[in-house]
Amino acid sequence: MSAVATNPQTEGAETVLVVDFGAQYAQLIARRVREAKVYSEIVSPAITAEEIAARNPTGIILSGGPASVHVEDAVLIDPEVYDLGVPILGICYGAQMIAQQRGGLVDHSGRGEYGRTTMSLDADGGCLLGGTPATQQVWMSHFDAIVEPPKGVTATASTSAAAVAAFEDRDQKLYGVQFHPEVMHTTHGQHVFERFLIDACGSSGSWTMDSIIDTAVAQIRQQVGDESAICGLSGGVDSAVAAALVHKAIGDQLTCVFVDTGLMRLNEGDQVVETFERSFGVRLVHAQAQDRFFEALEGITEPEAKRKAIGELFIRVFEGAQAQAGEARFLVQGTLYPDVIESGGKHASTIKSHHNVGGLPDDIEFSLVEPLRSLFKDEVRQVGRELGLPDEIVERQPFPGPGLGVRIIGEVTPGKVATLQQADFIVREELRNAGLERLIWQSFAVLPDIRTVGVMGDERTYGHPVIIRAVTSEDAMTADWARIPHEVLEAMSGRIINEVPGVNRVAYDITSKPPGTIEWE
Fold it and tell me: pTM for this structure?
């Protein structure tokens, strides 16, 4: 999956374009570049050399991919990209593509390499690998291999199954590695990225939290001018940081609106109002819209339909609050880069529509202000800390904009919400009691649209099951199920069954992302 998502906030910044050829690690590549303090964006392989030139990148990285360069209709980069004079780094499939398109030879090596592999440097390792051990561990995942590099290109490393595990030509500004430097199992992977970015591309590494904030503030002031803006506070990290950033830029021109949908976590509505009135010092409108949301969701069971119904009603409530916000023309949203990628784009598949991206109605009356659109979640948390937001906001677990509406499978009703709120509260409280809350990216309960037979007090029951979901992650693009100690799971299960009416069974979801998503809908 890939998407082109530009943001005026980053105009003028050094940018590296990551061309996504269907790699499972494309987002990791983009993150590794940003960890080297260089801004990166993921783009489609359909991008042309002319379009790349217009973006004026300092470097280009060609990702890996699941296909072979030899298959019919193999996805390839526009060959004129090599004539732009921009340094190019190919990873796995990307390296093979460079070799093939520039006159080298890529062939089946007879056996593939998968997983941890020992690699040996040739001579000094060149630009990318210079200064690293002569023998080192890398992560491989390929069947084809580069047999002969292009003319003028020098092999700088090899393995038992890959004669050309790394290559480079400084004059042609071509670099390639057969292994995956973005994966943590490659011991010197970040070194490869930093050498490419600093030595090959000449990047200054000046993309920091301070520069992000300063640039965003300037862009917001330019975009909004003397007009008023309205920001929807959901109680989550994203909307809170977006509101703080916009408030820093335009002050009292901003009015925050907290829409109480009735789909929040237990007691969270009151907590949001109290926290933001105390922490922000901005005008806050509390819109009580529970009945409207339940009415809008009545009879709807399909996940995308629920998301779109919630997204549209959010906008309608905002529009109704315009009079209290000085007839605001701008709507501030906490849209993040993963939201944009998952919601699809011109060259991307839609995994799920986020209510603030793919779920917006066509007749929206606001101009959008999305100061976080280019950032991953951990970067948003860093911005929040730099802005001085309290830990209770910055460290809050991610919570979807549609709230519990997408954690209830099937039709959403007030009764189901009440059941799920109680179960969800127990899950989070037990993790907090065990000291595990900060170690887990996201944890919550799900209420599926089924009933299950049980025995309680020697009587047959036919109640609801509750599914517990907890994952570890860095940025929500990939995630692994959390290994919660059995005694903690037992405490959760016992309390949910004993304390939540109508629930007689608890299950734990052990699915990673991929193949699943973090949320159930």
Answer: 0.69
